[in-house]
Amino acid sequence: MRVTQFRIEGLGHLSTLVADDEAGVAAVVDPRRDVDVYLAAARAADLRITHVFETHLHNDYVSGGRELASLTGATHVIGAGADLRHPYHPARDGDRFEVGSIRFATLDTPGHTPEHVSYAVADTSRADEPFLLLTGGSLLVGAVGRTDLLGAENALPFAAAMYRSLHDVLLRHEDSVMIYPTHGAGSLCSTGIASTSWSTIGFERRHDPLLGPLEVDAFARALLAGQPTFPRYFARMRPTNQAGPRLLGATIPEIEPLDGDDLDAALRDGALIVDARTPEAHAHQRIPGSLSIPAGSSFGTWLGWVVDADRPVVLVVNDVADLDDLARQALRIGFETVVGYVGGGLRAWRAAGRTVQAGAAFDVDRLAAQVSNGGPDAPVVIDVRQASEFEAGHVPGSLHIGAGELPAVLDRLPHDRPVVTICASGYRSSVAASLLRAAGFERVMAVSGGLPDWEVRGYPVEHGGADDAGAWKAGAVPTGEGHAH
User: Fold this and answer.
1) Residue 163 in contact with residue 203, Cβ under 8 Å?
2) Does the model's pTM come out above 0.85?
């Protein structure tokens, strides 16, 4: 018997292949859209994928369920309430599915979503009792899936359903039963998810605070407190997965170079330049109006957060070896509008007589020097991290506006003062600064590094709620007084 997990770091996504090696058959649970990884694993182990199981309609990525089923002839199984618009097997509580000697039993576990199911897995060649629970977005490692993704009005009733799913269904299993969830560390489908990708019922029962002796109302309050904000693209994922994403044939379309007339045509058609180089490279030289979304595990999340899904995109990269990963990340969140990349990069762009904007790096020492002067021309410091990060410590006098929320409040920020963005590493601050520049703000700097560097240098730190520093919500910004000295 074989149980293999696959992880996507930026999305915090975990999928699982469960195989009966002796029978040569396997099932894949909650697959990502680029399914070649599962096909390769099956070929390497001489396995035939007979079933694709999904725990729920996903909000954070495009499902590979339809794709994998179409390529392998596997039965696509998901909770009956998912109401897919393409062929699938609707699973109801108690339904059983055989994959060789492995039995998958469906458990209704609504809460994270209303149609959510889990699967209890038993190796019937050894015992009839389940040894593994595939818990999707319900019971996570060190956490519980949030219940507010389908609207604030659903958060409390879904939390009550989650409480019942946990206590009346999942926690009734033996302590030794393993849990393999779909959301891992880095996922925005809950807060406080542990970095380990699997656990056991017994360990979670003892160590997950949300599984303690709480009444339903107290559980709901604890579950919903401090949940992170989530990207705009989440709103498109559920209907996309329900309708059935476009089939790719297990191939990732290549991103082609653009130059000359082809590049001009893309720009005339409204293409947005997305700079996937490092924050430092973007700070020093950039295409005017371009957005900085550096390559790396978070590229897809931020592309979906700050760029409209129907907007054509032209990438700028330092290394063409990054393109395959960028293409995969875009497809995983339903972006199919990447029309190419700037052939030859910034050097070719400049050689063609196009404008390049120069800038400079900006570190915490420069920030400290500027804010210490105070006065009407002191910079507006915007902390673009999540609220929980801000509350744990921030530059005194800084505003809290998450990078993804900046576009909604641009009209409340002053154009007549410098603006400095800061995060934890320089990634989100680069995204935020580029959004401000693209909106017409002229004196904008992104801090390289972030709060950890600020603290290491011994500069003062304030603690407190994000709302306490949110004067911008009322249409006002600090005058520059009361900053760090």
Assistant:
1) no
2) yes
